[in-house]
Amino acid sequence: MTGKQLHKFGGSSLADAECYHRVAHIVQTHGHAGDLVVVSAAGKTTNALLDLLRLARHGQPFEEALAELKRFQQTLVSETLGASGQPLSDQLAADIAHIGQCLGAEPRDCAAIQAFGELWSARLLAALLSRLGAPATALDARDFLLLDDSVQPRPDWARSAEALHRCLAQRPNQRVVVTGYFGANAQGRTRLLGRNGSDYSATLIAALAEAAEVTIWTDVAGIYNADPNLLADARLQASLSLDEADQLARLGSPVLHSRTLQPLRQVAMALNVRSSYTPDSPYTRILPRGSEQTEPVVTSLGRVTLYRFQGKVPAFHQLCDWLGQQGLPPLADYDQPLMLALTCEQSRALGGDLARQAASLGLTLLSSGDDYGLVGLVSQHPGRLAGAFARLLSRSAYPCCRHDQALVTLVPSREVTALVESIHRRCAGPRRRIGLVLAGKGNIGSAWLDLFSRQQQQLNEEFEAEMRLVGIIGSEHYLIDEAGIDPARWQGRYQQEARECHGLEWLDRAAVMDLDEVVLLDITASASLALHYPEIVAAGLHLVSANKQAGSGPGTFYRELQRQLSNCHRYWRYNASVGAGLPVFYSIDDLKRSGDAITSVSGVFSGTLSWLFDHYDRRGPFSELVLQAKSEGLTEPDPRDDLSGRDMQRKLLILARELGLTLELEQIELESLVPAALADLPLEQFLARIEELDPLMQAAADEAKARGLALRYAASLTIDEAGVRARVGLEQVAHSHPFANLPAGDNQFLFLSKHYPNGLVIQGPGAGREVTAAAVQSDFVAICRRLLH
Ligand code: ASP
Ligand code: MG
Question: pTM score, two decimals?
Fold first, then answer.
C-alpha cells in the first residue's frame, strides 16, 4: 500500500497489556514510519473519569475511585513496559494528583479531565512502539485541532491542517500517536467530540493529514449483511459505498457513526473497518464511491421510540424537518396516523425538547412507547427491492418507508429477529445462480445474445438472482466458462478460447458447474442435438427450444422425454418452435385451463407460403414467384424445404401434442407442392426444372377461380366424434375466410372452441430474428418464474 495511513484503536482494543502488544504489532506490520495512529482511552477509562466527575459534582468522596483508576493505568504501564515504564509512571502519578486537585476545586474543567484517558493511551502506545524499535511520539490533538464552540464542535480546516503539518514536520520518520476524542478552541480550552468521538477524530485527522486511507481497528471484523448476533449466517461485507455506510449509521447501526463518515466526503479516502483481535482476517472497506458489487445489508434495532401525534399534517412535516436540522432525522415517519420513530438514544438526547417543539407547532403528543423495533434494508438501489421487501411484511408491520438508500419498517420488538431472518434470506442472502448455455450462435442466436445483454441486469433484479451466460455451443466448437461470458463481447472470447466439439463433452462440463440451475437454449435446427435431449435432462439441465425436431419427433421419444422431465423436475418449453413470438402456446394453455374445449386448429404456419399465396394471381407462373421469393431471401436456401409442407406438418404435430393428442408425423396427411420427380434432385437440377411446379398449381388455381374461392396452402386439425383429422396442403376458402385475408408473409393460427365458435385468430410474423429471439427469452423467463417465485 502506498501513501500515509492512519490507524485508529478504540478502548476495547487497548483494554490490557496484551492488547497494547497486539496493537503495537499491528502498527508495525500493517504500516510504515510516517503513519499516524489515533487512540481512545483504554478500556473503560472514560467512564471512570465521568464517574469521578459525577461524585465530585454531588460533593461525594471520589478518592477511592481515583485510586482505583490510578491502579488500572499503573498496571497497564508496568505490564506493558516493565521497568522501562518508570518515566510514564511518574507522569501518571503527577496527572492523578492534578486530577484530584481539579475535582476538588470549582469550576471544574470537565473536558480537560476527560482528556487524560486518551493522553495516557497515546503516551503508553508511543513508548511501547519506541521500545520495540519503531520510533514513535505521542501528540496531543489540542496542539493542532482547532474546534469552535458549537454544541457539536466543528473544525477550522485550514488552520488545523496547517498546524498538524507543522507538528508532523517536527517528528520526521516517526509514528505519531495522536489522542482521539477532543481538540481545543481558540482559547486553548479542551473541546470534546462526544462519546465515542474518537472514530470521528480518526477520519478528521486523516483528512487533515491527507492520508491515503484510514483503518478503524475495533472488536468486530467489519460490517455484516445482518446482525451476526441475530443470524448465524450473516456474512461479512467486503465493501460498502459511503452512502450505504452512512444510511446504516443513520438507521442506528452501532458500527460507524454518521459523523465519522463526513470527512470521507471531503477527501476521497477509503475507510477500513477491521478487528484488532484477528488482524489477518477479511474486513470491510468503505469506498468513497459505490461499486455495483455491493450487496444489500439488513439492519435492525430491537427497540425504537415511537411517538404518536395529533394535529395537522404540514405541522407534522415541519416537526420532522426540525428533527433533521438537529441532526436527528426520524428513522421512519407516517402521516396517517401521525407517527415518527427515533432511536432510544436520540429520544433520550432530546428529552422534553421534542414535545415542546411539537406543541409550538400546534401538535399534541398522544403517546410514546418502545415496544416496536426497526428492520431496514440498505442498498444502493432500494427501489429494486421494494416489492420483495413489502411481500415479507406481516400485518403487524408498519408500511415500508423509503429512504435514499434504504427501505425501513417498524414491527413489534418480538418480531424483529424473524423479519431480519426472512429479509436476509430473500433480499440479502446468497443469490440463486442460473447458468445459460446457448446452442446455435447464428442469426437468431446472436439476436438472443444482444437481447440478453440488454436484459441481464433487469432480470437479475426482478428475480433477485444472478443470471450468467456460461456456454456457447456452435456446430464445431464450444466455449464453456462457469464464471460467465459477457454476452455483449462474446465473439472475441469464442474465437480465442472455443474448443473443438467432441460428442457431449460440453455437457459433461456444464453439468458439474457450481450453479443452482442451468438452462440450455437450443436455437439450432439440429436433429442430433434434439436426440440428446434425454441425456441433457438427465444431466440436470432445463430446456428451451426453437428447434422443432424434438417436439415433432417420434411419439415414443417425445413421451419418454416428457416422462423424464417430470421425474427429474426439469422444464422444457418450445414456444419459439411454432409461430416464433406469437402467443400460441399461452392461448392453448389458457383455453385449457379456463374449461374451454378446442375442436379445431388450423392456419398458415409458414411465412414463405403465406407470401407466395398472397402474391399468386395466375397471371404469371407460380415458379417465377418462387424464384422471386428466393432472390428476396424469403425462402429457405432450398425452396423445397418450404414447398414440401414438412415444416408446417411438424408445427401442426407440435400443436396437436400440446392439445394432448397422441399423434405421429405420418398421421398428418401432407400434400407437397413439389412433384415427386423433383423431390430428390440436387438443388441445381431442381432449379433448372422448376417450371414443372406450374401445371399442378395452375390447375388448382383455375378450379378455385371457377368456384369463386381463394387458393391457399394451410394446415388443419379437427377433433370430433369421428376422431382426429389432420392435413397440410392446398385449400380453397371463401374470400371472406381469415386465410384469404392474411397479410403477405404473416402466420395465422385459427382456433375453434366451445367458447370461440367463430374462431380465435392469432396472427403476425411467425419467423424472424428479433421475434424468435424474444420467444426464446420469454420461455426462459417463464422457466425462471417457476424456479424462483
Ligand atoms: N474515550 C471516548 C469515549 O469513551 C471516546 C471514544 O472512545 O471514542 O467515549
Ligand atoms: Mg411461438
Answer: 0.65
